[in-house]
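Appendix B. Chain record.
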Amino acid sequence: MKITAIGADISNNDTSCSGNLIKSLQANIPHLIDLGAQNAALTNITGDDVVISAFVEDDLLEKINRGIVDILTENSEDLGDVNGISPTPEGAGEGISYAEAHIRQDRFPDALILAFDTYGGESFVGAAANSAIKAARGMEGVTDVSDEIVPGVKKIPGVGYVSDKTDDPVVVATLEDLESVGVVAGAMVGAALGNKNVYLVKRGAPSYVIPGSVILSVTAYMNGNMMDLAVPFEERTRILRV
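Structure tokens predicted for this chain:
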């Protein structure tokens, strides 16, 4: 089994996602269950980017990926990133973001999804995403982490190809147990925020930041239940007065 996560900018503006867009995407998520996904959800809303994630059996990965892209296409306000998908590497353009990771069969499907949004395609966003990936890799309680962001054309199973101009990366990590959620998420978010001009935001927050900045949302997706971890992290990181 795997988690698959596909992110895209299909908003009609550069800073946020409208209520109508969010509502229409959520209304179509059950279609992925009909296609065979164990669970599926609109997990991240970060500035003008959305991420749809699903827990799927390996042999259904391509089918579910196509289903996610169909939902993004049919409900888009602006095709934007969807237009960057190509059936050949040569035609690949700035497109959707993709991440996947394995889940052990004897575990409940628990995962973390980090989504980044740039205002102007800030070049350091890949390094910020890779910091989170490297922080999780090898940690106790981590089953698998998605691939690092690297230069070159990327193949998305069942969908096609996108170029390395894709600038709003998605990162996923799968977990061994619920107790690992806080520890692993803390390490990943901390690593990402250690990069210059990276800011943690709540799910659905617009990208009201000075250009040259990157925003990040983090969602725990636990056996089909979602939690925006920006909320508890905001409380956990309050400085106690003495």
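Further analysis of this model is presented in Appendix C.
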